[in-house]
Amino acid sequence: MSNFVVTFARGFGSGGKLIASKLAEELGVHCYENRILTLASQLNGLDRDIFEEVNEKLRSSKGGFASMMKGLPRAKKYIARNEKFVSDDKLFEYQKQIILNLADTESCVIVGKCADYILQGRDNVVSVYIEAPRDYCIKRTMENMGVTEEVAEATIKQTDKFRADYYEYYTHGNYWTNPINYDMTLNSERVGIENCVAIIKNYLKLKGLID
User: Fold this and answer.
1) 105 to each of 42, 63, 116, 154, 170, how far by Cα in Å?
2) Distance CA 107, CA 81 (A)
3) CA 120 to each of CA 55, 131, 132, 165, 187: distance values in angstroms, whole numbers, following the listed order
4) What is the share, in percent, of the chain residues with pLDDT greater than 70?
5) Are 133 and 82 in contact (CB under 8 A)?
6) Are residues 103 and 5 in contact, defined by beta-carbon separation less than 8 angstroms?
7) What is the radius of gyration, based on Cα positions, of the chain?
8) What Cα–Cα distance (Å) separates residue 187 from each residue in 9, 15, 19, 42?
9) Using one digit for the tens of pLDDT, what is the confidence trace for 13-43?
10) Where are the alpha helices (DSSP H) in the chain?
11) What value does the mean pLDDT take over residues 183-210?
12) pLDDT of residue 83
């Protein structure tokens, strides 16, 4: 069976990252999020010609960019974006090349990074959006970050604004919460974390992407 990719977009505090991690664990594949940005940031410091040379070599190798990310740490805490979005086209292009290479070389789960847009039209890609009511997201953020309700609410608002602006800019005007972008949108409070994982796995089976 050919490789598959599941992309995740998620509201802050909705549990989307947890669902993605659990899904990847149950499927026995890697879950990529911050490591893509970390590697892209490192490549961003290379001369363009050197990067193209590295890119060509990695595309022809078995491990691809995944082999370069094995030693990079995974984020264990919430990653909040409290700053305003500022575009960096060169950095995004490196992220895009990494995501394309991952999709070509292995089955995996990718969180954020406009992966649904970058990989749109591929039959082996399933795109998921996870959201939940604000009260639920605030409660989870307070518990996971150890902050007050006011800080949690402000963090959710600012991070979701950053993600929306990021997505709109790099998709040339599309909007992040548009259900048309995704195969499915799940309310993690109503459905539950474990049930979200089960539903996505069942959909992958229906698509013939897993046994």
Assistant:
1) 21, 7, 17, 39, 24
2) 28
3) 21, 21, 24, 19, 23
4) 83
5) no
6) yes
7) 17
8) 12, 10, 12, 35
9) 999 999 999 999 999 999 998 888 888 888 7
10) 16-27, 34-43, 48-60, 64-69, 89-105, 115-118, 134-145, 149-170, 188-191, 193-206
11) 97
12) 78
Q: Does domain 5-206 have CATH number 3.40.50.300?
A: yes
121-174 per-position pLDDT tens digit: 999 999 999 999 999 999 999 999 999 999 999 999 999 999 999 999 999 999
Query: HSE on the CB side for 67, CA within 13 Å?
Result: 11
The phi, psi pair for 110, rounded to 5°, reads -125, 125
Q: Identify whether the C-beta of residue 71 lies closer than 8 Å to the C-beta of residue 38.
A: no
Residue range 120-136, pLDDT digits in tens = 999 999 999 999 999 99
**pTM (two decimals):** 0.87
Sketch the domain layout of the chain as residue ranges: 5-206
Strand partners, 6: 109, 126
Residue ranges of alpha helices (H) inside 32-148 are: 34-43, 48-60, 64-69, 89-105, 115-118, 134-145
For residues 68 and 71, give the distance between their C-alpha atoms in angstroms, rounded to a whole number. Answer: 7
